[in-house]
Amino acid sequence: MAALDLALFHVPIQRKERTFRSKEELTLDYTDTELRARYRFGREGILFLSDLVRDKLTRQTNRNHALSVEQQIMVTLRFLASGSFLQVIGDTLGLDKSTVSRVVDSVLDALCEKRNQFIQWPTNLNQTKAEFYEFAGFPNILGAIDGTHIRIKRPHHDEPSFINRKGYPSLNVQAVCDAKGRFTNINANWPGCCHDSHVFRTSQVCAHMERNGNWENGILLGDSGYPCRSFLMTPFLNPNEQHHRRYNRCHAVTRSIIERTFGRWKRRFHILHSEIRMDPKKVTKIVMVCGILHNICIQLNEPDVAAEELVNEDVENGNNYNGQQDGRGIRSTLLKLILTVIKFKTSLSLSLFLCIVIQETEGPGSFTIS
């Protein structure tokens, strides 16, 4: 009797019929201009990225509907370039939301493994210093450093740690770039409540500069949110003297490359400018991949995205560093020499400038030239 009742009330499972959407959008049959408008890379760039991670993304299947490596790259680039919801990306490209999510995860993982290949500390130090010197006569610079906030959704755990001084949740991303706007270091591991000086003090960049922090090996330029160290020059706060203002002007002109780089970066990958609606760990991965892609764009001479809006909201730090600073003696020596060049309008070569600074800094209270 019980079996008969079960048979009477048994409802067969209605399986949804599988449908395969058209993927006509995922094609390279566009002009380079049309491809860049959608994916931020032309045909050559998309094929370069595909070959870079082909061994990681090739599907081990004989099914006809598996996405090719090129299509996976294009899906991820569309997501990073637009900052749209995964559902919107899927509807636009003819894919299911879950497929888009899996593809983006796979491509991010594959590209992250290449970070040491494309984000590297300068190796040709003399060339890097010479390129920075051309901006405003500021000598011996290896890079410009700054932080920028990447907005995220409110995390479920430890939410207060991610609220920055402007009142919204974010990651505080520290970056160093060279004179060409290439990232030489990116640190995206700290929540928005952390001060720039703390992020720097605990970073690999600071540890490296402390080990190799002498004039011969080069220094960094940072804003007033960082301490003035022997290897990190900052501007004068509230300059009242004309020579201090001139130093600050040269400092600002040279350091502005990092601000412009943040602007180019966020215009190219709009996901960095909008709110990233993902877990902070995945946001860290997205930031790193966008940095890798930015450097690849420069390597392949991809054109910048038109400046439709001001995307870098962190130009003024507004939260100055108030701790110990041990680089003021070096900064004073630099000030004298920069003013000498400006006063007499001398076209001083970088090599001669460095020799003078080395001689001037070999005294009590200065660091040792190794």
TrEMBL record:
GO terms for molecular function: hydrolase activity; metal ion binding; nuclease activity. Keywords: Cytoplasm, Hydrolase, Metal-binding, Nuclease, Nucleus. Residues 145-295 form the DDE Tnp4 domain. Signal peptide: none annotated. It is found in: Cytoplasm; Nucleus. The keyword DNA-binding does not apply. Pfam families: DDE_Tnp_4. It comes from the Eukaryota. Its cofactor is a divalent metal cation. GO terms for cellular component: cytoplasm; nucleus. Transposase-derived protein that may have nuclease activity. Does not have transposase activity. Belongs to the HARBI1 family. This is Putative nuclease HARBI1. It comes from Mytilus edulis (Blue mussel).
